[in-house]
Amino acid sequence: MLMFLLRRFGIMLLTALCLTFIVFFLTNLTPNLEKLARSEGSVRMTDDQVDSWLATNGYAQPLILRYGEWLGVIPGWTFEEEGKISGRCISANVPVADAASFCGILQGDWGTSTVFKRPVSEILGRALGATGWLMLWVMIIMVPSALALGVLAGMREGSRTDRVLSAVAIATTATPEYVSGVILIVVFASATVGISPLLASLGLIEGRTLFQGTATSAMENITFWNFALPVITIALYGMGYIARMTRASMTEVMTAQYIRTARLKGVGFRAVVVRHALRNALIAPFTVIMLQFPWLLNGVVIVETLFNYKGFGWTLVQGAGNNDIELLLSCSVVAVIVVLFTQLISDIGYAFLNPRIRIS
Questions:
Q1: Which CATH number, 1.25.40.10, 1.10.3720.10, 1.10.540.10, 1.20.1080.10, labels domain 127-359?
Q2: Mean pLDDT of the residues in the chain
Q3: How many of the other CB atoms lie within 10 Å of CB of 40?
Q4: Over the stretch 4-33, which tens digit does the pLDDT of each residue have?
Q5: Is pLDDT of 253 > 90?
Q6: CA-to-CA distance for 154 and 243, rounded, in angstroms?
Q7: Inter-axis angle of helices 120-155 and 160-174, nearest 10
Q8: How far is Cα 328 from Cα 29, in angstroms, rounded to an integer?
Q9: What is the pLDDT of residue 279?
Q10: pLDDT of 196-239, one tens digit each?
Q11: Measured between alpha carbons, how far apart are the two ends of the chain, in Å?
């Protein structure tokens, strides 16, 4: 197991370097840098003034050097003009003599957002905290519901229950979040259509709507009424895929020889399912469940934008829409780390659940 972990960590490190370099290259293309110069300087800057601004701010260096500076493995750039020294590691609060030589991702310096004018680490910390609560409640609702649907459908393959549950799972997976989210808002959070006007006319609700159509207030105080719709929107989309995988795995296990032997020995159907079939049937869905974490982190973009919930997805959209290079790069680092570590946890968990993999 130790050698397995060492190999995986080596592969993870190499993968992270390759992916972050690709993102660094794409975000530092010449048109993006020129747009950044004009947005930070003036839209009326000439080409010579743009080149001067890029040189003054360290963007005129070779790409590989800037990537090393961004990582923190190469000393940060410095620029001296008219006796004034500026640089990547030099700030107004730190004297030049006390400035560090290395100031990159490895040193915890994530840069400053050109849009929000705040440290990127502060912005990402708040955004990841908000998305973390969203992911937690989505997983609490999505995983048990999906497993229950899959197990019930797989226990009785071909029955009416199986067909109904399979149809529900396919329908939820085939409906994009921006469709199901809009439907939920119209039905439960509209003051003119849906069930809210009816409930308000009967005096069953205090406000004009049953649920809130925006989750902005959930950033400060999460309640059932301002947080339920985004959670249900994401959970519905991911639930069907997990349920279908669980059903397929459960169907395969229920036809195995050891299940037939247990039934012939007189073991009850419920005992066969709980003691013998369920654990083996959960091996494949476990991998799928672990894959939901990177999907949730990057797939909440639509839902967070739709419900104006300022989490990681909303922050990523703001960074991409405003050419915030430092924020985009930091978001890519977070996404790569989450994907790689969830893959590692998935492989380790799969090995423990499957004795054949563990022995080999």
A1: 1.10.3720.10
A2: 86
A3: 12
A4: 778 888 888 899 999 999 999 999 999 999
A5: no
A6: 10
A7: 160
A8: 13
A9: 72
A10: 988 888 888 888 888 988 898 998 899 999 999 999 999 998 88
A11: 11
Two tokens, residue 70 = 């961004």
The string of pLDDT tens digits covering residues 128-138 is 999 999 999 99
DSSP state of 118: S
How many Å apart are CA 14 and CA 19, to the nearest integer?
9
pLDDT (0 to 100) of residue 142: 92
- Which of helix, strand or coil describes residue 86? strand
Give the H or E element holding residue 54: helix 47-56
For residues 81 and 83, what is the distance between their CA atoms, to the nearest angstrom? Answer: 5
Cα–Cα distance, 225 to 138 (Å, whole number)? 15
Q: How do the domains of the chain map onto residue ranges?
A: 2-107, 127-359
Strand partners, 86: 79
pTM of the model: 0.83
- CA distance to 2, 339, 342, 355, per residue, from 7 (Å): 9, 17, 16, 21
* Segment 163-207, tens digit of pLDDT: 898 899 889 888 888 899 999 999 999 888 889 988 888 888 888
CB 319 within 8 A of CB 305: no
d(CA 1, CA 7): 10
Query: What backbone torsions phi and psi does residue 206 show, to the nearest 5 degrees?
Result: -80, -45
